[in-house]
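Observation: inputs received (chain + pyridoxal-5'-phosphate).
Thought: call the complex predictor directly.
Action: predict_structure
Action Input:
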Amino acid sequence: MNLKHLVRPCVCSIKPYVPGKPIEELKRELKLKNVYKMASNENALGPSLKAVSALKKSLRDIHFYPDGNCFYLKKALAKKYNLNNDNIIVGNGSDELIVLSLRAFINKGDEVIIADPTFLVYKLAATIEEAKIITVPLKAFRYDLPAMKAKINSRTKMIFIANPDNPTGSYVTQSEVESFFKGLPEHVIVFFDEAYYEYQETKDYPDTMKYIGHKNIIISRSFSKAYGLGGMRVGWAAANKEMISYLNQVREPFNVNRLAQAAAVAALEDKKHILKSRQMVRCGKRYFYNEFKKIRLFFVPSAANFVLVNVGMNSTVVYQKLLQQGIIVRDMTDWGLKNFIRVTIGKPKENKLFISHLKKIIGKHK
Ligand SMILES: Cc1ncc(COP(=O)(O)O)c(C=O)c1O
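Observation:
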């Protein structure tokens, strides 16, 4: 059967998103007992135990549809971030909020400005909406906001800013965002993707929430990273009430399942778990930076829970050899970053294992 004449042309032009290799798949393929996933920026500590027990409790009710309005989760988020419930939308992962934002606002041919390289879902979702995608190269592994602003014209509808960025881990500062907003035309919506927000610890990280109500801004955050709930699929976005109402118009009625909502409410309350996760990531990054320096590998200092590092040789080979040892990282070749891998901070034992195998593979045993 040939369906080419039926499918939308934009669907054929999509390069599918390739996720990090699942642990189960590698165990199956290589018959390995121990596999460490350091590929998808998940929380190596695991979920909050409070979230796990909330999940168990809500299992009894799974014959009921979830609350399509995510009332309790919105209430908890609103309290924590000093917002109103109607400033918030919850999604099936923050991925869904990217998709919904484009679905609500993009007409065919509208221009969407993204960095190159950056998180792949912006391009993928914008392609489905038949947007014209304008890419702006990173400058020294950072978003180049002035160059992105210079690309704005009357057809520009949305600009995506991953902050901290994936795969670099770099971030844009408050003063950069301040000048970016100065004189920004009102027909442009700025989408700040703050999936790694909980890990940034610098004073000049921008407070984007303060622009809600003054600017056309959508801010998304995730429960998949520091909150350790990647498998539940929960993310949320904040924006002004009218913006949120349009996003709600295009979402499915029950987009966030009952278990995910219960887990997210409990995770949000577990302050100790977040503190521990941040501590683990802080120490892990310090360890990686020191080790990379010792063996003279270039890396990008990261505000998130992963590090982008140039391994000085074919990164696909390094990736494959690490797989043989049961360590899954991300090869960055397909992202246009030749010789780079991205490694998620693990527990200390995993970090050490990764470094010792990496040294053997690249032939540096200092
Ligand atoms: C920058 C960025 N945004 C969004 C996401 C998606 O997160 P979620 O699991 O909330 O859909 C990721 C996941 O890797 C990411 O790196």
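Thought: report the result.
Final Answer: Residues 64 and 258 are 8 Å apart (CA to CA). The longest strand covers residues 156-162.
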